[in-house]
Structure formats: structure tokens, C-alpha cells
Amino acid sequence: MKVVLTTLPAEGEAVNWTTPKFFKPTKVRYLPLGVLSLASNLLDKDIDVVVLDPPSEGWTINQTVKAIEEEKADVLGISAVTTRVYALNKILEKTTTPYKTVGGPHATDYAQKILDKGADAVFIGGIADNEFKQAVKTKQKGIIQCNTRLDEIKFPKRDFLKVEKYFPKDFVLFKSENRLPMFTSVGCPKRCNFCNVQGKTIQRKDPQTIVDEMKYLISIGCKSIHLLDDNFNTDEAYLTQIVDLMKKNNLSIEWSGRGEAMMSDEMAQKLASANFKRIHSGIEALNDDILAFFRKPVRTKQITQFCKIANKHKIDILGYFIIGSPLDTQEYWESLPAKIRELKIKHPFFNMLYPEPNTDYYRSLLKGGYYDKDHWAEYMEDPTPYYEIPYPYGEDRKKEVINKVNELIAEFKVEN
Asked: What parts of the chain have a pLDDT lower than 70?
């Protein structure tokens, strides 16, 4: 039996103005860890698994369809995100694989629509590795609820793809040689209103499995590891176990992680002693009213303490900031650069506030009358290529926010 697993090409993707082009170098490829996990946990002597990654290859929809059809597979598994639903529908329509399945974030929110477009099975609710393996054997149809736990599956092998292609070639804010991502956990318990993370309960890998995966990455040429968790540092006791095991196994590789702007002095010291170089943290704002609007769990006092601790232990801070909340003022914008420098946030990363589908922020715009109809619901009924949702506060405000983001990028570009 042959199984083809694929991500979706970027052709026709809905326009998302969150991240400016400056922060999206064209040569960067993102390892599809979810698909690689499915492949790694599906491996069997009777199953041949092929992994395709169209966005990294720069393929069009038709090129993706051609690559899938050439494999003559028995099973097609598609990992889908909502912004690429146009490509998803076209691929479901044009491919002839006998058993077509879809998973990923988009599947959980729009399962029935995906079935209506030609999928045989849709996996919802989270990690799908065990359920997908069973479905490949039984060809189960319909909506399949997933209950696989992260700590009961193998970590993803990267050799289904040419991993050297995924080592960074372009660098924007910092340089890390042969950097590769991995996860120690999935999910985030926080309730930030703009966030589209579906899992609000954290699942964690066993610390020994994490260290084994780090060793594996080193063995395939990785020289810098980035923990791409939704929020890696919510449990310091768990993080301490990982650090202790790294030291026990003499792992001195450079590493970094994506997490929240909260950390004890003791934890920072332990991380620094294990060659942890950088934390990527969603700071979002340096104003308490704006932080409250975003429903962030911290205020400027806690952020200030977090930065003080990280800087004390020489852990660089990559701080994400969101520009464009309805509470943003010219006065706040003008004060922001000085505040960032005062806190010694080495790598400020500026985003625009964007109404992601199925987020509380988007729902608040509907409820508040900023939109006169449910644009995302209408789009899902008939996705059009390169769709762009209207800016909720008017085009003049949109231009103002874009200009401010570009000004901030230019101001800190020289410093980085």
C-alpha cells in the first residue's frame, strides 16, 4: 500500500497581513512536522510512505496535483490550514486517489464542508497519528475524532524529505547555522483574543523522548534547535527535567524556544547554563490597556521583570509586537521604540493585528458591528483565490498602521 502525505501549495492563499514581508524571507522553508509525525508513526513493512511539501518547493496547485497523481497512491493525506482552503478544494477535486483524507487546523473547524468537497475522511480534535494509522487500514469514512496523545507516539523522522534544504539560507533578525525546529509540547492554556491555537490543554512529550530527538537532529547535521511549541515554558519543573537530561547526555547544542513573557530567575539561570540562547516571546504591547484588550495574562510590570531576568542571564529576547489595536494611539506608537530599547529587547518583531477566522477577536468585530456580515463564513462557502478580508477600521487606518509597522521595522533594522 502506498500513502502520500502532503501540505498545501501557497497558490490562491487568502491574504494575511499579519507579518510584513521583511520578516518572511523567500528562501525560508518550514519543515512540516505534523505530516512528518504522521509518516513516522505510520511506517510499516506493508506501507510505503511519500511526503510532499509543495510550499517549500514553490509548486502551483496543478504541479501539486501532478506530483500526487504520479505516485499512484492508495491513500492521500492532506494537512490543511484555513488560509489555503482554495488549494485544498482544487486538489480534492482534481486528484483520483481512491481514499482521500484531510487533517490539520482547518479540518477541526470545517469538517463537513471538507467532506462535501470530496474528502472521504476528516480528522478533527488534535493529534491524529493513531487514528490515521487505523483509518489507512480500514478506510473508515466520515468525521473521525482524534484522541492520540503526544507522549504515546514516536518523534518525527526528517528523512522523508531532504533535510538540508530546510537549513536556513536567509537570515533576518539573527543568524543560526543549520537551525531546525521541534516540539516538546502542543497547546496553550492562555486565552489571547487574537490567537487561533485550538488546543487549550497542553500535551507534553516525555523528557527522555525530547533529548533523544535532539540527539537525532544533531546526527543529521543540525547545529541549532528551536522549540516551536505554542508555549514551551509554562511548566518550569518540566523544563528543568529537560535541562537536567540535556546535561546528563552532554548536549551542548545551541537552542531557543517560543514561549510566554514569564520566567523565574532560577529557570533562566538553568536554561542559560544549558546553552539556551534566545526566547521568542509574544509580548504584543507595552501598554496595560492594550494588553488587557488582547487578554494577555501579563502586564507591563511582569514584562519588565521578565526582560530584566532574561538579560541578566544573557538570553536574547525576540519580542513579538502587535500594531493596530483600536486602543493604539500616536502617543503610544511614538513611545514604543524607547520602551523596547529600555527593556533591551534585542529583536523586536512587528506584526499587524489580523482577524483570524474562529478567534474571539474576529467574533468581537462581528458583535461590535465593525463587519456587517460574517466574511469568513461567506468565504468558506465559496473560496476565491487570494481573498482579503476587509480591514475592520477602514482603509485610512489600515494605511496608517502599515506605515507605522514599516517605520518601526526600519528603525530597528539597523540595530539588528
From this structure: 25-27, 414-416
The C-alpha cell at 366 is 462581528
**Beta-strand pair 185-186/179-182:** unpaired
Measured distance CA(303)–CA(309) in Å, rounded? 10
DSSP string computed for 279-340: EEEEEE-SSHHHHHHTT-S--HHHHHHHHHHHHHTT-EEEEEEEE--TT--HHHHHHHHHHH
> What pLDDT sits at residue 100?
98
Residue linked to cell 514569564: 262
157's CB contacts (< 8 A; 6+ apart) are 36, 39, 40, 216
CA distance 107 to 139: 18
Please report where in the chains the cell 530567575 appears, as a residue: 265
Residue 55 and residue 149 in contact, taking contact as beta carbons nearer than 8 Å = no
CA separation for the pair 216, 400 (Å, rounded):
47
Give the number of other CB atoms < 10 A from CB of residue 148.
20
Query: What letter does residue 199 receive in the DSSP assignment?
Result: -
Rounded distance between C-alpha atoms, residue 229 and residue 238, angstroms: 14
Pick the closest to residue 276 from 300, 305, 309 (CA basis).
Answer: 309
Residue 32 DSSP SS3: coil
Hunting for cell 528603525 — which residue is that?
411
SS3 call for 224: strand
Question: Rg of the Cα trace of the chain?
Answer: 22
Q: Within 10 Å of residue 384's Cβ, how many Cβ atoms?
A: 10
> Which amino acid makes up residue 53?
D
What SS3 state is found at 100? strand
What element of type H or E holds 203? strand 203-204
